[in-house]
Write a structure and sequence with these properties.
The structure is a homodimer. Chain A has 9 helices and 8 strands. Chain A is an alpha+beta fold. The longest helix of chain A is centred in the C-terminal third of the chain and has 27 residues.
Chain lengths: ~200, ~200
């Protein structure tokens, strides 16, 4: 069975010194479907890297309705980054929507102090932020210019096997459509695929 | 009149060595309304910091319709960051929607080589990326949960004096609403303000 240090070595290209530090602030957590890692209005001092399963971050609106910001599948990061980067309490919740295994990283001393001590981690983090910005800008642009059926099909491509884990309202609230629209889109897709076979 | 080095010293907290380097890759540009700094399908090797005026980035969809990704007012950065961070040609255009003054930074040698030589710039850039992610995540969440009138009013708060510069279709295509909806929202706002006075 793989140990913490194996997971870290496999996934992140780090010098020996930084690898040791990274191990010292992380642990493997085996989680059950339904477990919540972050709830609203808490201090956020942890960030999660998914090894297996699926997590979801979402907010509640004033009517208590949920809106999904992100699904994190294997090899993706998740936390409440608005809280971490703004140094504020959480507005998002992060929950497991399947039994999952994550690497949990504690950033209790603040990310700034980690970057000061280990510039190598700042570089990795910066590259990751750039990828996140590309993905968020594309999501904003797609929301502006694509039809809901185009966005749904792109979403499925970008989130392999997501339909094994996510409930209808998770996906609908990520795409910004009603559950009825989602059902209609699925039915249309089914008809098309049926026609093609 | 302020010179390049004054603008840089005023706005960025840099060591003398990095200040000198930053000056060496930048210049002040006085631009006219309508000037395009980036067009589709070009190599993007410049990034712009607005000193005065207003710039806009947008894409064309397959029907030639424009969709606004960003407005950059004073003290904001703009470029095609999807192109820069993905090392691809531009998909966006960047244009001046008012006479503007910008600091233009050349990143012809690639941003990676700048960060390798000047880790201080990587830190500044990383902090900026974190702010951009907070703002983009909030925009995605607002798009999911707010009404168009709420989004319009928030947009005005976040973009001081934008209505001096932006045309109706710029704003409508940023908010993802039609120009007719924008006119209706403005009329409703006007009625409310009239009622309150």
């Amino acid at each position: 069975m793989l140990e913490l240090k194996d997971y870290i070595s496999e996934r992140f290209d780090l010098s020996d010194e930084v690898k040791k530090f990274t191990e010292s602030i992380s642990c493997i957590r085996n989680l059950k479907k339904g477990n919540k890692l972050i709830t609203q209005n808490q201090l956020v001092d942890k960030t999660y890297f998914v090894l297996d399963g699926c997590l979801r971050s979402f907010v509640y609106d004033i009517n208590g309705k949920e809106h999904t910001l992100q699904f994190a599948l294997k090899d993706h990061w998740i936390s409440d980054y608005i809280a971490i980067f703004s140094n504020e309490k959480s507005t998002q919740e992060v929950e497991c929507i399947a039994d999952s295994v994550v690497l949990e990283f504690s950033i209790e001393d603040g990310i700034e102090s980690i970057f000061l001590s280990y510039p190598e981690i700042e570089s990795l983090h910066r590259k990751n932020l750039e990828r996140v910005i590309v993905s968020l800008q594309k999501r904003v642009l797609n929301q502006l210019q694509m039809s809901s059926i185009e966005r749904y099909n792109l979403f499925l491509k970008q989130h392999k096997d997501i339909e094994k884990y996510a409930l209808n309202y998770h996906i609908a609230s990520y795409l910004g459509i009603t559950q009825q629209s989602l059902s209609r889109i699925r039915a249309e897709n089914f008809k098309k695929s049926d026609f093609l076979t």
